[in-house]
Specification:
Helix content is 78%, strand content 0%. By secondary structure, the chain is mostly helical. The protein folds into two domains: 69 residues; 336 residues, no CATH class.
Length: 460
């Protein structure tokens, strides 16, 4: 067994043991394992391992044994958690209501993955209750994603090219793998713009360059568009000072160098007219039209989780492929056809509510945020829309990273809510102390004035 596989197994054992007493460690281990995918990276030795399931199980055990304690959650976070729970409920009910012989097995897989992600995210939101825990969780996600990016960039340099149509990573094709890295790119961008030390900023930009370059290598046009939106929002919401403005210019130069003519040509094809579109882009419009028609015919309950693709051939007039299913390549239609309008609405609210709350936090209190909270705030504001933009071209409904980003965003909202309440109470207490001191000074002045009056009267 390789040294890397031994190290990963050892760490997983330690995380499982620690999760019983410190379940938040289990959540961090789950997030790290989800982004690293060790069963794929070291598949010669760990292909049949169920590391995530073991970590998840120990985390749940630890959560129960420690009394299911939760930090104080703001009302908006509770609403987001409620909408996410409603979405998972609709997924489970949809799988029971609909029985499609073509996609029955896929529906089972969809339900199995969905409820496990939901369970871990709910635990993470309740347990990640300090800035230190938030920083550890996000940093682990960034580092393991950068490790995979390093491996892919190294493979590209050795081979000179990557066959994107044959690319596969832990069950993900080039588009889905690229989408899975985008929420972490949002976190990395936030670290970059929030770093105050030049050396730390230099290290982060190296990680960011590797993460972005792997998307260029894999030629995922939708994710490229998502990265651009993520970068634009990060630039808009970042602290404006000479250091960050210089950092934006530097990142732009590095991005232009990494892109080169082939990547620019591939990205520009997104905006090509009908005659100039390639087969992939043209077929997507037909599939999206079919997805919209399926939603209109089944607006309330949908056709069952991951079953929409089995109905697509029936809604395309000139469908000529041999397969009796066609992926929808769109997050909105993937969920909307599967669970209907209620499903896609509840799913959207899970992402929209934390984003709006972080926008309000940025608008009202950005000057009061610490470096860690600034990273969380900026990552949510940039990463969530970036993920949705990229997922308009390929569905990422079963990818863990966007849910982990929202879980960190919700947890950071709870932490900041507690901090702001404490600051407000401290400020109020200080004001009361100042008022008491002013009153005491006034009483002393009155006493001294009456004393002087009495002295004058005696003198007269």
């Amino acid at each position: 067994m390789s040294s890397g596989a031994i190290a990963v197994l050892s760490l997983c054992v330690l995380v499982c043991a620690a999760a019983i007493l410190l379940p938040w460690v289990g959540f961090v281990g789950y997030a790290t394992c989800a982004m690293l995918a060790p069963q794929w990276v070291w598949r010669e030795y760990l292909a049949d391992s169920e590391l995530q399931k073991f970590i998840s199980a120990m985390t749940v055990v630890g959560f129960v044994l420690t009394g299911c304690r939760s930090q104080t959650l703001p009302r908006g976070v509770k609403w987001a958690m409620g909408f996410y729970s409603l979405y998972v409920f609709l997924v489970v009910i949809g799988a029971q209501l609909h029985s499609n012989p073509i996609n029955a097995q896929k529906s089972v897989v969809f339900v199995d993955i969905t409820w496990k992600i939901w369970m871990m995210c709910m635990i993470g939101i309740m347990l990640i209750n300090t800035e230190r825990k938030l920083a550890i969780c996000m940093l682990c996600m960034v580092l393991v994603t950068s490790w995979n990016a390093w491996e892919l960039n190294l493979k590209y340099l050795r081979q000179g090219a990557i066959r994107v149509h044959d690319f596969y990573f832990a069950g993900l094709d080039n588009n889905l793998y690229s989408i899975s890295t985008l929420p972490v790119i949002g976190i990395t961008l936030a670290y970059f713009f929030s770093a105050k030390l030049p050396f730390r900023q230099f290290l982060v930009v190296i990680l960011l360059a590797m993460q972005v370059h792997q998307i260029m290598i894999l030629e995922s046009r939708g994710t490229m568009l998502g990265v651009l939106l993520c970068g634009a929002l990060a630039t808009y919401f970042m602290p404006k000072n000479p250091r960050t403005i210089a950092a934006v210019i530097a990142v732009g130069i590095v991005g232009a160098i990494l892109a080169g003519p082939p990547v620019i040509r591939e990205f520009s094809s997104i905006f090509s007219s009908g005659e100039q579109r390639d087969n992939s882009a043209s077929s997507r419009f037909k599939v999206w039209g079919a997805g919209a028609a399926i939603m209109l015919d089944n607006p309330v309950t949908g056709v069952g989780p991951w079953a929409g693709e089995a109905y697509v051939p029936k809604y395309i007039v000139d469908y000529k492929e041999r397969r009796n299913y066609k992926a929808l390549h769109n997050l909105f239609f993937e969920i909307g056809t599967g669970m209907g309008v209620p499903g896609v609405a509840s799913y959207l609210m899970f992402f929209a509510i934390p984003w709006f709350m972080h926008y309000q936090l940025w608008r009202r209190h950005r000057q009061e945020l610490s470096e860690v909270m600034m990273v969380c705030n900026l990552a949510a504001l940039a990463g969530i829309p970036g993920y949705w933009m990229a997922s308009m071209f390929s569905s990422g409904a079963l990818i863990e990273s966007p849910y982990l980003l929202v879980a960190c965003a919700c947890a950071s909202l709870a932490v900041s809510h507690t901090q702001l309440q404490k600051n407000a109470q401290d400020k109020l207490a200080m004001e009361e102390v100042d008022e008491m001191e002013v009153e005491e000074d006034g009483d002393l002045e009155s006493e001294s004035y009456s004393d002087r009056s009495e002295q004058v009267a005696v003198a007269r």
